[in-house]
Structure formats: C-alpha cells, structure tokens
C-alpha cells in the first residue's frame, strides 16, 4: 500500500515503536471527539435496513442534507466521504485547475489521476497565509477552476471569499470550496458560500459529516451546486450504491441535532482560545490563529519529524508532521483540538520537551 501522507497513522507508528494503540492520544486526526446522543440506537436502525439495497437515487438522504443547508435537494450529490466527491468532480470539470496551497493533497492527486492540468498557487506565508488576490488575477487565464479549502487545512483560518468569488464569476471560472470544517467556525453563516448556490452556478461546495460530527468511518460527504450539467456529468460516472445504509439512516437524525451542533461549536470556540494562549506561551513555537478544530504550529529549533518521534515515545501522543504540505517545510506540525484533558496533556508534554 502507498503512504498517501495523511494523518491518523496510529497503527503504523505503534508497530514501529512497539506501542499499544489504545494508549495513544491521536492529535493527528482532526475530528470532533464528542458524538451525538443515542448514536447506538440510530446505528441499530441502520442495521435493520441493511437487508436491502440503499435507495440508488438517495432521495431521502439528499432531502435531509438539503433541509440542513436550506437548499434544493436537486443541488445535492452525496458521496462515500468527501473524497468520492473530489474524485467525481475531477472527472467532470474542464481540464485546467488551480489549487491554493498549502492544502489537502487529495485535490491535486485526484486531478492528476484524471489528467487535469494543475497550476499550484500559494497563500502568502509572509502574511500568515493570506489569500494573494493579485497573484490569482495574474494567473486568471491559466485555469478554468480554482480549488480552495475554507477553513483552510492545515492552516485553520477561515477566509472571506466574497472578492475571490466576484473575480471568478466575472471571468466565468468555477470556484470549488471544501467547507468540510465550516461548522466549527463561530460565524459560519458569514463565511459559508452555501447561501449563494442557488443564484450562482459557478460555485461548487464540498462538505461532509466526517469532521464536525466525528464520524469519519461513516464515509458520508456531499457536493452542493446549482450547475445542472455539472451534477449530471458527475452522476453519470458515479458508481451505484456507493453510500451505505448506515449513512442513509443516520442522516435522518444527525442534521437535526441542534443541541449537539450548538454545544460543539461553543466548545471549540472556547477551547481553541485556551490552546492558542497556552501554546504561544511556549517560546520555541508559533501557533497560528485558527477558526476551526486544529492548529498549525511552526517549530523554531526542532524539526517536525524529531518532535513527532519524541512526543510519541515519551508522551504517547501522535501529532501530524505537516512538512509534506506544499509551501510548508520541516518545521511545521498540525495538532487537533481534542477534549480539554487531552489538550492539557499535549501542552504539558510540549512544555517538557521544548521548555517554557
């Protein structure tokens, strides 16, 4: 198997260092550590439905997602995780794609595997990874679509994309936004572009239940777009029954969990402020401002590889070595925001290794 360079490689690390995965705190995987109430009962409902095929048209699933987002169900294409949507999209768009880096590597991988020409553009590292609008304007004739993760992975910042959207719409370019982490943002309604979907076919949004609802194993993602032709092209090549019954059934409950949604958002707003304050008191690191459930950190006198190994051996903690993201180097790591007790343990272990 190829190493695709993602986080959550707990088993590989445990095998390498002869540790039990049950004892490891995984800060490399940035998902909500809390689950909705009654999840076991909902899973049992899904189990009862497993004796028959899922609806091949995903009628109920699309309706539930549409109600959650307040859009038409015809604008929804569900997938086996956000990754399926990314790969279907790469098979369906025009063959020149710009990607704003550093970002999730599957955008570029999916594009290249489908013979899409990629132009890599970069967030401005010298300005804490601001969007360089002038650079995009300078390269506007070199691409047909532009891919951005908002909030950004691995940076954690959320961007106001109104100016970018205006520029791309004016030039009839497709703006693809991965909003997988958008639910963590305090003023989600301000930054999400879902509100523009119906009247602007030049927007394609990717979302999932993976991160915010803490269910990566469920493999439920979805695309949102009002371009009927683009969605039709994606449906034509989509494999049948790629979404399992559990995902279909759980959609009846997940998106209606208003208490869980509010509590999770409130927790991460408070906890990321706590973590940023404490992490930036450690002189050997710079923790970047974040609007989501993970934090990008730059190490001043140690490599990511060295710190990852020390934390794993001495503290039973796994972090994400972020050096393989484009435009980052060997001094960058990413850590998830987990439970308060686990976050305290990370801070304590970093202080021990790096000093106050």
Automatic annotation (TrEMBL):
<feature type="domain" description="Aminotransferase class I/classII large">
    <location>
        <begin position="23"/>
        <end position="348"/>
    </location>
</feature>
<dbReference type="InterPro" id="IPR015424">
    <property type="entry name" value="PyrdxlP-dep_Trfase"/>
</dbReference>
<keyword id="KW-0032">Aminotransferase</keyword>
<dbReference type="GO" id="GO:0008483">
    <property type="term" value="F:transaminase activity"/>
</dbReference>
<keyword id="KW-0808">Transferase</keyword>
<keyword id="KW-0663">Pyridoxal phosphate</keyword>
<dbReference type="Pfam" id="PF00155">
    <property type="entry name" value="Aminotran_1_2"/>
</dbReference>
<protein>
    <submittedName>
        <fullName>Aminotransferase class I/II-fold pyridoxal phosphate-dependent enzyme</fullName>
    </submittedName>
</protein>
<dbReference type="InterPro" id="IPR004839">
    <property type="entry name" value="Aminotransferase_I/II_large"/>
</dbReference>
<dbReference type="InterPro" id="IPR015422">
    <property type="entry name" value="PyrdxlP-dep_Trfase_small"/>
</dbReference>
<dbReference type="InterPro" id="IPR015421">
    <property type="entry name" value="PyrdxlP-dep_Trfase_major"/>
</dbReference>
